[in-house]
Amino acid sequence: MRVETATSKSTDSEVRIEKSHSQEGRISIWFFIGMLLLVYGLLILGAGIYDLFVPPAQQPVLANLHAGIWWGALLVVLGGFYTYRFSPRKER
Amino acid sequence: MPFPLALWVQPSNGQLLSLHWVDGLIILIYFLLVLGIGFYLKKFAKTGDDFFLAGRQMTAWIAGLSFLAANLGSLELLGWAASAYQYGILATHWYWIGAIPAMLFLGVVMMPFYYISKTHSVPGYLKLRFGESSRALSAITFGVMTVLMSGVNIYAMALVMKAVLGWNINFSIWVSSLTVAVYVVLGGLLSAIFNEVLQFVLIWAGALIVPILGLIEAGGWKGMTDRIAQSFPSHDHTHLWSTMGGFNNNPMGVHWTGIVFGLGFVISFGYWTTDFLVVQRVLSARDLRSARMAPVIGAGFKMMVPFIVILPGLLGLAVLPEKLVGESQAVITGGHSYNEVLPLMLARYCGPGLLGLGITALMAGFMSGMAGNVSAFATVWTYDIYRPLVRKTAEDAHYVKVGRWCTVLGVLISIATAYLVMNFASIMDYVQALFSFFIAPLFGTILLGMFWKRATPAGGFWGLLAGTLSSIGMWAWVKVDPAALSFIALSSSAKSMAENMYRGLWSWLICVAVTVVVSLASQPKPVAELAGLVYGTAPLPSEDDVPLYKRPLFWAIVVGSVFVILNIIFW
Q1: Contact B213 A75 (CB under 8 A)
Q2: B353 and chain A: CB distance < 8 Å anywhere?
Q3: Contacting residues of A for B541, CB less than 8 Å apart
Q4: Any residues with CB less than 8 A from the CB of B322 and at least 6 apart, and which?
């Protein structure tokens, strides 16, 4: 471990551990999160739309609100945004 | 802080939920992704810093969310939702006064000492400040407790999966543990942090739907509180402080002094500022300012967690047609217990897909908690036990290899503990108690170490030892003679949570008293050796060149103000 310790005139940004460069080129965590939310959103949205036309025998409370559809759509939007914003191609 | 696991000893009968194929697919995708992330990150975990501290490259946001996610295990979600059903909004104290001040204190005051001292771990800081004996005591206790806690968590999670989905206990234990082992062995802390942030987002995506739909059904907050008051007129379930004037005025049997001094000061500060499981995440930050911002960001999100944990429990009180009971009573009557309130609420509102997401959120919580435990275990055993006591000098690659083997070993001991707990359920209670023995005195030792130059190595060691032993002694005293509860917890009607808080407070006071007395009677270290370790021995880095909106102190004041306002609103 190497470190620049605090000196009398050091500023906050100077206090930084010297690092290796082994993390360069790593895909952002937000890209993985975006992908997962996108895929989950599509699955939940699809299941919600299917339930709209073929309602299950046992419906959950407030089934009339079709939570699967709007929650799935929300996840698709969020997931799509993060996938695009942090895609490895765009980052490069 | 960890939810009291003993509440999960008894498995419930019957299966609560059944899954659609879409739900199964959602769970399968999650497992494939976390394993995929582990394999992908292996190439980025080459050096000791990469493996044990994620290359010290994390942004404040990632370190902050990971800091919080390592604590947000599935038992935390299920357990505190159950507590909210049982004790009402009082359970929120564990998220607000029991976390926020301590997290802000870590970020604003303590982080510079941890970060500037270059330490890999909390026991590592004790070595620098008090010497090898304090480090060894702290590291061995922490390592053993962490891995035992991890094992108890696995077993408790397997019980939950059995109760909720009817899954075989062995299947749950092995599949979940091996998945965590694979991704932590491959990518170390980097992989653990990546998955924790992913799991944090999943927990919100999967759990947020319940309070939203619950509030719609109950008719908003007012509708919910009216329904609760109507159904449970004997207790006030919806006020945070107004019932805290006496031990018998609230369902938890606790006085405000226990909440403020025991929980809000000793237990909370002990856990959030000295438990390496959470502090390790902050040490991975890329610079000091990020390391100071991370707990502040974590605190901001922690304040919101009651929305997905406490509120579903309260909504359960308002909308569930049946009255939930304690675990032992549920086993006798065949009814549902408090512990099942969150799965029951999921089943109430979630159709195919959403249910899978909710279950995945619970699993994600479990796995983030376990990954946190084993990665902290690997670091402490490699750097604070193996290196100083077994092999002092070796190549960096050797320690990385040892860290990987420690991870495997940690997971295997965890699995063994899970089976041990299965056969001797009372061990769960002991392990939980052992964990609490150590945290409160450690906070006393670190606090004096950071803020009192006169504290000596002998004082640090004997204070820590005396605090820990006295905590064990108090616990044993109440076990042998239950009447001792009225001395330890100041009331014979105190519940186990209240007992823990007061025991923590006394053991902290004993640790501080012994540290002070022994320090005054022994030789202090020269001030030159304390530079960067103790307040006032070296100037702290200035933030003069940083705009106000980027300063940790500014955001800590913002978060602290919201914390005060929330407590007043729900008074």
Answers
A1: no
A2: yes
A3: 6, 10-12, 14-15
A4: B335, B336
B residues 17..76 contacting A (CB < 8 A): 20, 22, 25-26, 29-30, 33, 37, 40-41, 44-47, 49-50, 55-57, 62
What are the extents of the domains in chain A? 25-91
The amino acid sitting at B107 is: G
Cα→Cα distances B532→B36, B181, B429, Å: 40, 36, 39
Tell me the sheet residues that pair with B58.
B285
Q: Do A10 and B542 touch (CB under 8 A)?
A: yes
Contact predicate B241/B571, CB 8 Å: yes
| Closest-CA distance of chain A to residue B418, Å | 31
Burial B180-217 (b: 16+ CB within 10 A, else e): bbbbbbbbbbbbbbbbbbbbbbbbbbbbbbbbbbbbeb
Give me the tens of pLDDT residue by residue for chain B, a chain 571 residues long: 554 444 444 444 556 677 888 999 999 999 999 999 989 988 888 888 888 888 788 889 999 998 888 887 656 777 888 888 888 898 899 899 999 999 999 999 888 888 888 788 888 899 999 998 999 999 988 888 888 888 877 887 787 787 777 888 888 888 888 998 998 899 888 888 888 888 889 889 988 999 999 999 999 999 999 998 888 877 778 888 888 777 777 777 777 887 888 788 888 888 888 888 888 888 888 888 899 999 999 999 999 999 999 999 999 999 998 888 877 777 788 778 887 888 889 888 888 899 899 888 888 878 877 888 888 899 899 988 898 888 888 888 899 999 999 999 999 998 998 888 777 656 656 666 776 788 889 999 999 999 999 999 999 999 999 999 999 899 889 888 888 888 887 777 666 667 777 888 899 999 999 999 999 999 988 888 888 888 888 777 777 788 888 899 999 999 999 999 999 998 8
**Given CB atoms, is B16 within the 8 Å cutoff of chain A?**
no
Its pTM stands at: 0.84
ipTM here: 0.83
Give the residue carrying structure tokens 């939007």. Answer: A77
Q: Kindly report the CATH class assigned to B5-40+59-569.
A: mainly alpha
CB contact under 8 A, A56 and B50: no
B545 touching chain A per CB within 8 A: yes
Nearest CB to B286: which of A11, A16, A44? Answer: A16
Q: How far is B152 from chain A (nearest CA, A)?
A: 29
Residue ranges covered by each domain of chain B: 5-40+59-569
* Burial class of residue A1 in the structure, from the number of CB atoms within 10 Å of its CB (0-12 exposed, 13-18 middle, 19+ buried): middle
